[in-house]
Amino acid sequence: MRVFKYAAIRLAVFFVVWGACMLLNLGWIFSTIAAAVIALAAGYLFFNELRTGAGQDVAGAWQGRGRKEQFRSEQADADAEDSYTEGRYFEPGSGPDREEKP
Question: Does pTM top 0.70 for this prediction?
Fold first, then answer.
């Protein structure tokens, strides 16, 4: 939710500045560049708490909250595979013929 609030505030600042520049007949290219820079600066300086919260929300969504809690069937499958393969296969470096390297 913080992402949408932050985006709405930045867009509002952008369009207010853009509209003011257009009313002053500064041209649409200059108005767009000035509005983008001022909206970026305003978001960074005045809405720092909201910006960092939005960043944390995006990071949490990007990492995938569902990854922390595997589905029960996935965990059961992983446990079954681990119990089946445990002790069945040779692991390199763990046998009696293992040579010590200096």
Answer: no
